[in-house]
Predict the 3D structure of the following.
Amino acid sequence: MRSSILLAASSAILAVASPVLQERGRTIVETETATEWVVVTVTDGIPLPSMFRPDRNRVFPSSITSFSSASPSPTPAPEPSPEPAPAPIPEPEPEPAPPAPPVEVPPFVPPAFVEAPQPQPPAPAPPAPAPVQQAPAGDDYVSTVLFHHNVHRSNHSSGDLSWGGNYADYAMQTARKCKFEHDLAPGGGGYGQNLAMYATSSGAQAFGANRAGAQAASDFWYNGELHKFPSNGYGQGTPDMSNFHGWGHFSQLVWSNTQQVGCASYLCPAGTMVGNMDAWFTVCNYFPAGNVNGAYANNVKAPSGQPTVQAS
């Protein structure tokens, strides 16, 4: 079985004229087997025509003849018989109106049914870009550590750091002590400092100093703390400091006014830092020191949205 422990300590700064915060944080991660980090028809009917019958009742005129008997009387001169009235000339019956032309009813044509196309499922949204790991310019320790600082600084509009050999020497003096605590005694102080530790039960030697330095800068101090910086803290001279220990490494790493960095990663044997595990102890010193109260607005700027870079 194999387990791992990760610790990161916050920046410590010494400054003469400006108040500088010195904080320390620890992150412990244990892994087994592999090294891990903790940090929803109608058919209309046709009406039938009405039938009509003519009135068949007829009226016939009737005549009555009467007779009477009396004594003869002189025969009167016959009166001229009236001429019979001329028989009425029957008027010709009107010719029946010609039948109306038949109305042609167009044959019923059922409407054509066109099957509606099946709705297509919406196109899936493009996947979010995966974290991008860019290779450093060189494979030596200095190039690796500088890359994993400057790639994140550019995302916050801060210039590249250069390597500070003296500060790297001071960092090695602190790392060799294998004590997870800030130490600004080497060189007399006057610089900022970030600490990180990675412990594992096996394979520590193969893990190597380069990977330990890259992991400390990218995975612990930047990616591990970027989201902890107050969202409304950008542009403020002094943001909310109640969780400074959670984001102080990040703000030192991207601090615009810092010009140099010097780091060292040292393999501490089992029992010195962690009971039965070897541990890589990484120390980075920064000059000029960051995390100066009242100066955050000009030195910790909002990220520009560049791709995420990880050590592994």
